[in-house]
Backbone:
């Protein structure tokens, strides 16, 4: 399949049939075999870094240094999922031995393990041409779980998608993974067709609220609905108390500007709302940083779709008259916009949350001045689910504990100080949150826990040892942790 | 609120406001406090057994012995969730300490724990007036997770629901749980209203495919969709090989008849499809067991809705001409029907799966004769998701391993021998499966893992110890297991 040409119905049928055929043999691979496959993909991508970088730069307008870091993150992520497979805890193996004296009556021998859901369709994002695209987090976690992946390429970087897909397929073939485990398709209608196909058992997506909701609606309105893991949108509020301003206003100003303009503001974790005490001089400091020409300048956006969306969002905000321009240059609406800062008051914000808290994907943010810190407790109830929420405060300010609690009701990740851009891939990461941050609040799309999205448990009752999945056999030849009669046990070190 | 009168809009508003107010204080209770609440509910129910039993018998037409067993199962389940809370693993506490040398760049201190989703609406089932009703599995697991519960009573047992609800509320008050943590509401429209309310964060349901799908559609079409855990329908295929027939045909005949007629066939795990080798005499043996008047007789169904649905389903099957009556008495269509067995051939079954594999909730089953055992591998692809699938075979029959694998693609629980009715509540249970068995295949509605449905993870980045949730603090005063830098660690025994 060549980039930019939509995948034809005939080609889709080949892809779907191959994915279905590959599902059983791929599921039957040992975790260590699948780990080898992930490592092979990471190796091939690292080897091809010099070839991929110019394509990515041309198609995404992102800088070489940013893209190089992102590719490093991508291959690190693949290898971390390989380690997750080696660890074995992702299988959640449980063994209840038969027990005639079990409290509700005799208990049979019952054993439970996670199995792959089956073929997944993954919709790539525009803003991370590596880390949330062809070989990105959704692909890595679905393959780790044992699910074939049909990857719908993002139109923003077609050539990079095609080439990355070739490398992934080649790496999988090298380690002997079944044919059909991975394919890249092109075209929005092709993506929807695949999502509707009964052979597909789950969907994953990173992108806009509108696009993600449309796909979610397809997934849940199928004759047999399937899980859909959409990471949609977030404005990532940041609350700054007077104590924090007194401690280091300049660091907050610098940190905020750095974070909301990073990558031209094209991150789902961009801090779009900054709540500051009124009269503390924060607006003036922020504006001054740009007036002095020391602030970040213009940077090109990813593609025309993003430019159009950003312009429309910014115009809606400015034209509303509810947000005053704090920083708004002549080039604010260009294809390579200069950063924009708007400001408003807390009462106006609380009265117009739908307008003022809408995500504006690009280098813009809204500064909200509050008179009484206790009013901040009203903000979160006005916001939808968030990927992140950040608090800059002093530990001894009474509002801190209350805000942290309220933030935990609305967001997937809470930050004390610092800035939400930069999502580390690790064991304890949670990149998710209530709708519209995601369509599946119990799951994460970053970090090792992401593998759980693509699995479901199966219990085996009185099944003979030889017919049990290996992870549930008493000999435990894979050496995975097993929860036996309710207590977790680890295999002896060999 | 009194039974049988639909809950008014004004009353619903009171219930929803109270549930929302209770969410935070209930979430803040320690696991051991919530465990105490569950144990108090179990104690109050046990104390009231003599009072509840006659109400349950009158409203459900189930036998005293069956109801007594079910109440025992219900209080056992509450206490097992209490134990799950004491264990602490359900929190999945993870701590990644800051690490400047982390592979993708410096890692902040990142900690992750499961928090309650918020208020849940639980739709009670008709066929388990205790175990899947007011104080049943969904309520127990949602309360265990820390979520207030609005319980929509099943119209089949309104008085029992009202009285059980009073006992639950009283028990919760005794242990100091916040007001509003639990309420019982009546009326289908009231249930839908609650499901649509933005204060409700999840739904759970046990019942029919049609009813469950309608509620699922409401949950996912809200402005902010919420997780909906529906346990809908299943025909629970049982495959019998020639080897198994040779080993003990009579035991299979007895076991099957006992299982499909248990509780008048009103179990979601009723084996509705029995695949037997043609010409092995199984049909004759089954029919003979009823001819000899030794088989189970008539038994009343739960309520008029069930009677109407059972009659319509049975008529559709018989009138189709695709299934021949094997056992079909004069009373087969009455309010207290005698059991019915129909028979067909595998080719006819494979050609008409939608008609012949439809769930017929009541004491009926279909016996399918096959000529070639290898043809059984085609059956599962024709069936939707199943709660269970059962295989009676010899270990050395080559088909056994293949069928087990295929069964694992379609069902939540696989049985080797035995019968699917009787779902033990334990650590390794999985009561779920792909749609239409459930609307959430990664979850279970029976067993300790059911608690995970009502939680979502939250990550805390660089948050000071005193502001962290207790389960994430270094001192670990609750003594929960913590996964530290990717390795699970247990607190030292005190």
Residues:
């Amino acid at each position: 399949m060549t980039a930019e040409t939509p995948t034809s119905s005939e080609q889709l049928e080949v892809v779907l049939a191959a994915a279905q055929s590959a599902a059983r043999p791929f599921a039957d691979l040992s975790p260590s075999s699948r780990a080898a496959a992930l490592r092979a993909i990471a190796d091939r991508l690292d080897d091809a870094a010099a070839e991929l970088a110019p394509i990515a730069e041309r198609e995404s307008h992102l800088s070489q240094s940013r893209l190089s870091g992102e590719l490093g993150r991508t291959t690190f992520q693949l290898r971390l999922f390989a380690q997750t497979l080696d660890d074995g805890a992702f299988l959640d193996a449980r063994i209840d031995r038969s027990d005639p004296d079990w409290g509700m009556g005799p208990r049979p021998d019952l054993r439970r393990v996670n199995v792959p859901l089956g073929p997944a369709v993954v919709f790539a994002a525009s803003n991370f041409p590596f880390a949330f695209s062809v070989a990105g987090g959704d692909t890595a976690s679905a393959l780790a779980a044992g699910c074939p992946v049909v990857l719908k390429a993002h139109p923003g970087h077609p050539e990079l998608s095609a080439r990355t897909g070739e490398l992934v397929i080649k790496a999988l073939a090298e380690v002997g993974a079944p044919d059909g485990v991975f394919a890249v398709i092109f075209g929005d209608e092709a993506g929807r067709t695949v999502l509707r196909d009964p052979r597909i058992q789950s969907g994953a997506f990173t992108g806009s609220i509108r696009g993600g909701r449309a796909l979610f609606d397809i997934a849940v309105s199928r004759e047999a609905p399937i899980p859909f893991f959409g990471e949609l949108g977030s404005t990532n509020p940041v609350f700054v108390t007077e104590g924090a301003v007194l401690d280091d206003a300049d660091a907050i100003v610098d940190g905020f500007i750095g974070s909301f303009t990073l990558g031209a503001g094209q991150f789902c974790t961009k801090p779009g709302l900054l709540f500051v005490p009124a009269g503390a001089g924060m607006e003036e400091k922020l504006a001054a940083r740009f007036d002095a020409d020391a602030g970040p300048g213009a940077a090109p956006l990813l593609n025309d779709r993003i430019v159009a969306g950003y312009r429309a969002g910014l115009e809606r905000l400015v034209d509303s008259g509810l947000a005053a321009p704090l920083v708004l240059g002549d080039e604010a609406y260009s294809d390579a916009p200069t950063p924009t800062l708007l400001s408003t008051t807390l009462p106006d914000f609380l009265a117009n949350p739908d307008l003022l808290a809408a995500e504006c994907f690009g280098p813009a943010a809204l500064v909200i001045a509050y008179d009484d810190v206790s009013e901040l407790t009203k903000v979160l109830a006005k916001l939808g689910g968030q990927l992140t929420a950040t608090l800059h405060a002093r530990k001894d300010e009474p509002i801190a504990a209350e805000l942290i609690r309220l933030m935990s009701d609305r967001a997937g990740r809470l930050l004390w100080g610092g800035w939400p851009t930069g999502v580390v891939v690790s064991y304890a990461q949670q990149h998710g949150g209530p709708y519209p941050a995601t369509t599946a609040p119990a799951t994460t799309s970053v970090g090792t826990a992401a593998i759980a999205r693509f699995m479901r448990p199966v219990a085996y009752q009185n099944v003979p040892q030889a017919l049990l999945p290996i992870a549930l056999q008493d000999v435990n030849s894979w050496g995975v942790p097993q929860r036996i009669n309710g207590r977790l046990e680890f295999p002896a070190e060999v």
